[in-house]
Write a structure and sequence with these properties.
By secondary structure, the protein is an alpha/beta fold. 43% of the residues lie in helices and 15% in strands. The protein is built from 12 helices and 10 strands. NADP nicotinamide-adenine-dinucleotide phosphate binds next to helix 11.
Length: 282
C-alpha cells in the first residue's frame, strides 16, 4: 500500500532550521550513471518512482558520478516529481571559478533553479568552495551547504570544519562495518547543529555480500526487519544524530526494501548492541 507506507516514513529534522526530511533516501553513484542505456534507464526510473511513491524525497548525486546528475534530472522531469524531491549534489574540482562553473552545470543537469543542498565532495578545495557556498546560500541559490567524505581518515578534518558551527550538513561513512564516526564525529555534529547524511551504509555492498545466503534471525523479524538491508539501515537510524541515510541502488525492489527500514521505531541501545554483536560474530 504505497500511500499507507508513505505516511509511515520516519522523518528527521534538520537541526539548523527544524525542516523535516525522510530518514531514508537514495544514493546515485554507479546506479544512476546509466547514460543512454534504455534498460538501465527504465530500471532507474522505476527506482525513483518507488522512492517518491513510498514517501522518500532525498537524492544525492555528484558531478563525479558520470551521467547520474543528468539522468536524475531527466527522470524527475519525466515522472513529474521534481517538486517533491530534496536534491543534494556536490562540487568536486579545484578553484573558485571552476567550482562555480561546475555547480551551475550541475543545476542545469538536475534541472533545478535552486539546490536544496550543495556539498563539497571529499573536501576537495574546501575553503575555496565553502566561501562560494556561503555567498550562494545568502543569494538563495542553495538552501543548505555541506561537506562530505567516505573514509574515517577524514573524520578529524570534518570535525575541525564543523566545530565553528557554520556547516548545515556533513555527509559521512557510517555502518556496522565502518562505525568510527560514533567515536567523536556524530557527537560533535549533534552538538554543533549539523545534520548528518550517512553514505556507504552497506560499506558499498560488502556487508550484504557477507551475509548472503544466511537466514535473518527471528528476533530481527520481531524488531520489524524483513531483510538484512533493513536491519543494517535500522541500526544506523538508531543513532539519533543521523538525519538521513542514502543507500545506493537503481533496483526498485531494493529501493522499496530500503524505505521499509524507515517504517516503525528505530532500535534502542540494547537492540543496536544485539544487532552489532550478531554482525560482528560472523
Ligand atoms: N564522498 C562522498 O561524498 C560519497 C562517497 C561514497 C558514497 N556516497 C554516496 O552514498 C551513496 C551510498 O553509498 P554506496 O553506493 O557507495 O554504497 P552502499 O549504499 O553502502 O551500497 C550500495 C550497494 O548495495 C546494494 N544494495 C542497495 N540496497 C540493497 C538492498 N536493499 N538489498 C540488496 N542490496 C542492496 C547495491 O546493489 P544494487 O544496485 O543491486 O541494489 C549496491 O551494490 C552513494 O550512491 C553516493 O550517493 C558519497
Amino acid at each position: 500500500m504505497p500511500a499507507a507506507r508513505a505516511a509511515e516514513q520516519l522523518q528527521r529534522s534538520i537541526p539548523k532550521t527544524g525542516e523535516t526530511i525522510p530518514a531514508v533516501g537514495l544514493g546515485t553513484w554507479q546506479g544512476f550513471d546509466v547514460g543512454e542505456n534504455a534498460a538501465e534507464t527504465a530500471e532507474a526510473r522505476d527506482a525513483l518512482k518507488t522512492l517518491v511513491e513510498l514517501g522518500g524525497r532525498v537524492i544525492d548525486s555528484s558531478p563525479m558520478y558520470g551521467s547520474a546528475e543528468s539522468v536524475c534530472g531527466r527522470l524527475a522531469a519525466e515522472l513529474g516529481v521534481q517538486s517533491k524531491l530534496f536534491v543534494a549534489t556536490k562540487v568536486w574540482t579545484s578553484g573558485k571559478q571552476a567550482g562555480i562553473r561546475q555547480m551551475e552545470d550541475s543545476m542545469r543537469k538536475l534541472r533545478v533553479e535552486r539546490l536544496d543542498l550543495m556539498q563539497v565532495h571529499n573536501l576537495v578545495d574546501v575553503t575555496t568552495h565553502l566561501a562560494t557556498l556561503r555567498d550562494w546560500k545568502a543569494a538563495g541559490r542553495i538552501r543548505y551547504l555541506g561537506i562530505t567524505h567516505y573514509h574515517s581518515g577524514a573524520h578529524a578534518e570534518l570535525e575541525r570544519l564543523i566545530k565553528p558551527g557554520g556547516i548545515d550538513f556533513v555527509q559521512i561513512n557510517y555502518s556496522l562495518a565502518e562505525p568510527e564516526a560514533e567515536r567523536r564525529l556524530l557527537g560533535v555534529a549533534a552538538d554543533r547543529g549539523t545534520a548528518v547524511i550517512v553514505n556507504r551504509p552497506f560499506a558499498q555492498g560488502a556487508m550484504l555480500d557477507r551475509v548472503k545466503g544466511r537466514a535473518l534471525p527471528e528476533w530481527a523479524r520481531e524488531a520489524g526487519c524483513a531483510s538484512w538491508a533493513q536491519l543494517f539501515l535500522k541500526w544506523i537510524l538508531g543513532a539519533p544524530s543521523v538525519t538521513c541515510v542514502i543507500p545506493g541502488t537503481r533496483n526498485p525492489r531494493h529501493m522499496a526494501d530500503n524505505l521499509a527500514a524507515a517504517v516503525g521505531p528505530a532500535p534502542d541501545a540494547a537492540l543496536r548492541r544485539r544487532i552489532a554483536d550478531h554482525f560482528n560474530s560472523r
